[in-house]
Amino acid sequence: MIHPETLVAAQRSFELQDAEAGAQRYYDAQDRKAKQEGFDRRADVQKIIRGAVPLVAAGLRKWIEEASQPKKGRPSSALAPLQELDPDVVALAALSRTFSTLAKALPLSTTAEAIGKVVQVEIEALMIQEADPKAAKRFLKMAEGDPSERSTTKRHESLKAALEIGLEWSRRMQVLVGGTVLHVLLKALPDIFMIKTIIDQRGTVLVVALTEEALDQIADMAQAAAWMQPLLKPMMVEPRKWEHFDTGCYLEYQVSRTVPMVRTFNREHQKMIRQAIKDGTMQEELDALNGIQGTRFAIDTRVLEVMKWVQGEGYQPAKSFPLSNLPEKPVKIAKEEWETLEAEVRTAKSRQRKSVMNIRAAASVNLAVFRTDLEEADRLKDLPCFYLPHSMDFRGRVYAVPHFNPQRSDHVKALFRFADAVPMGPDGGYWLSIHLANCGDFKTRTGRKASKDEFAERVQWVKDNEDMVIGAAMDPVPTLFGTSFASPFSNNCKRTMRLAKRKTLSSESSASTPTIHSSPPRRQRAH
């Protein structure tokens, strides 16, 4: 037996490791997002952009107001385009483009051109909205679901061509408009951006760069966010009891502070919960939550071994398993052939290709999750017991905090068993047989589905199939994968194995073995 103090020390160590792993996962995810979607898409950069938009928008309004005043000479070429757009929209677009280009150390003129292009696109979007509101709505819906800027630009150009509208801006015009917006942006945000001279293979180049203060701010925000993303896993000791809203169920504060008792962002809701805990009116809920997370679980190692075998063989016995045989990636049609196809055929082929690509993408995610589940089960299988911290959602529903929990798909549920066995009593076998027949819903000897037949027929089905039931316990692979079980990892199959196990142990301890009666046991009326 492992000493309790040793378990507590090990749990604390694991929690600190999980905090570090969560932070690294956050950094990796942000780097991947920046690489795939652009530096401006990082969470920390997005936070800076949201805070800077009002300042840049105010600067644009001031510039437009001053440029609109009567004066000698021609007005700025940027005035008319910027008057058509909401300054907040222009500010958001300009900030996104500036962050995107500075990460690549692009020349100042290229940054101005990029901002000018997005101003042009925004004006064209207004023209599309006016010409065909339904088409504009469809475009926005597709753009929201696709982070690829290249795809969005391609759809925009196609829609422009179909409606025969658009602006024919030269690069000079784009640089003039974008340069004006960039000048306003740099003036409004001197603590974030600066003009920097660099010398490389291109020669002497002026670029937009982040100030030291901005770099420190981004690093601090990234670090703060990263350490709020720990990997939340089952615990090898009983979770800390909930006594306050922020008590946290984990032992280390660094992890427990990320898990509130109730998952709600509503400040008023949080205030009411804190008050209810303080005055004792929520004590029953606290006791229930602590009772639930005090349940001792263990890994069903037999199921774990079967799942490993299934993964090794590449089977998919249930929909919750990742696909083993992925559909072939569609071959891209040559441009010349594509142009000869009718519009309906193009649409059908595009949808088919997108569907296959979505299936392949989902399969890779499911496989990663599946492997993580097996790794977690392997980590826990040698422990005498483990616990699942729980919390509530804003409606009061109780959920496990770790992702690895029995509230998920059948194959994950099947990995869990109670660490502390309790005798089912003399009538346990009878009711377990009925429940087994209900879950499997096999056809009984009367030809009816078990769930619709008499109790006696359901019990009889279990008796008639005793060899298969015992076989499932003795050697699950050929038994479960050679029958008509819809899902070998569903609860009915686990119950088959449990019932079979009790049968095989009957000779060792007949007094504690549940009896399978053919008729319902008599129930005593409570007085």
From TrEMBL:
One of its GO terms (biological process) is DNA-templated transcription. One of its GO terms (molecular function) is DNA-directed RNA polymerase activity. Residues 506-518 have a biased composition (Polar residues). It comes from the Bacteria. Residues 9-294 form the DNA-directed RNA polymerase N-terminal domain. Residues 500-527 are annotated as: Disordered. InterPro entries: DNA-dir_Rpol_phage-type, DNA/RNA_pol_sf, RNA_POL_N_sf, RPOL_N. This is DNA-directed RNA polymerase N-terminal domain-containing protein. The lineage of its organism: Bacteria, Pseudomonadati, Pseudomonadota, Alphaproteobacteria, Sphingomonadales.
